[in-house]
Amino acid sequence: MSSNLIISGSTCGFTHSCLSLCLCTDMSTKVAVVTGSNKGIGLAIVRALCKQFDGDVYITARDVGRGEEAVKTLNSEGLKPKFHQLDINDLNSIKTAAAFFKGKYGGVDILINNAGTAFKASDPTPFGVQAEVILTTNFFGTRDMSTHFLPMIRAGGRVVNISSMLSVTGLKQCSPELQQRFRSEDITEDELVGLMRRFLDDAKKGEHKQHGWPDMAYSVSKIGVTVLSMIHARRLSKERPNDGILVNACCPGWVRTDMAGDKAPKSPEEGAITPVYLALLPPGATEPHGKFVSDKQVQPW
Ligand code: NAP
């Protein structure tokens, strides 16, 4: 008997005898996914992974045209990234991408949550509006990604959340009570989400400073990313102790991109070094895990 197989939307034209081969090929291929990788640090991370990671590497972008242009750029350098649409502010987009990677590969080996946004210092948009936009992407979008992708990170997987040194700066400017919660080992994801929502409410009312928050929405969003990484690391250690998955937050440094401008000292390739180091921590490594890392060094939190 012969039959055609539909695998992730593509038809296998071979006979039934290739069933195990077809499934096996994708299921045994390792895969890395980088959010917001059509430009900037994300694109540089994909470039480095294409050279150093033995598996498929996905550029993902919210805009298909910009994503495909990025693929062409790397193709012209002799690299072969793949592409999937992914808008971290769109739950349907996240779910569709998660289903794609689950169906095609059975899971994900490397997830780099890189997509992020910021306002220029000179931008006149009111603080409360900026705070909403920034937290929606940097914290809540990254959290939604984690909700749908963490359960399918394979044993030995690596999760890297791109935070910022500004999370450390912002933490130091928080009230002692907030600092204590953000540094505590028992903070839950629900409590963290509640605190981020509280910041947004305070910011919209112009009361964030009097309630102990720093006057920088970007810093608060990255405090959220750093603490979320620590929470997820603790949870994975508890719930999947034998799977050897490592989760970390990191700062890429001050990097010349559309976000940070052309005066920054690091090139995107230099900005990719620490995220790629964390993504390629060797099999069997046990640390860093649940840390904030900059220039490949664990930083005090
Ligand atoms: P960038 O050049 O502005 O790139 C940001 C990327 O994120 C773009 O690809 C953008 O896509 C994407 N993005 C934004 N919102 C998205 C969404 N909802 N869904 C999917 N993708 C989305 O910035 P960058 O400097 O490379 O920043 C990368 C990461 O590093 C960010 O998390 C940033 O906060 C962090 N970081 C940067 C610096 C620095 O000095 N550059 C320092 C510390 C941390 P579009 O092209 O469609 O807008």
How many DSSP-defined strands? 10
CATH evolutionary superfamily of the domain at 31-118 and 141-173 and 221-298: NAD(P)-binding Rossmann-like Domain
CATH class of the domain at 31-118 and 141-173 and 221-298: Alpha Beta
Structural class, from secondary structure content?
alpha/beta
Mean pLDDT: 93
Could you say which overall geometry the principal axes of the C-alpha atoms support?
globular
- Provide the low-confidence segments as ranges: 1-25
First-to-last CA distance: 62 Å
In the CATH hierarchy, the architecture of the domain at 31-118 and 141-173 and 221-298 is 3-Layer(aba) Sandwich
Query: What spatial order of strands do you see in the largest sheet?
Result: 5-4-3-6-7-8-9-10
Tell me the quaternary state.
single chain
What is the H-and-E element order? Answer: EEHEHEHEHEHEHHHHEHHEE
Find the CATH topology of the domain at 31-118 and 141-173 and 221-298.
Answer: Rossmann fold
Strand content: 15-25%
| Relative helix content | 40-55%
What is the helix tally? 11
Present as ligands are: NADP nicotinamide-adenine-dinucleotide phosphate
Organism: Oreochromis niloticus (Nile tilapia)
GO molecular function: carbonyl reductase (NADPH) activity
Keywords: NADP, Oxidoreductase
Protein name: carbonyl reductase (NADPH)
Q: What keyword list fits this structure?
A:
301 residues; alpha/beta; Rossmann fold; eight-stranded mixed sheet; two-stranded antiparallel sheet; 10 strands; 16% strand; globular; disordered N terminus; binds NADP nicotinamide-adenine-dinucleotide phosphate; oxidoreductase
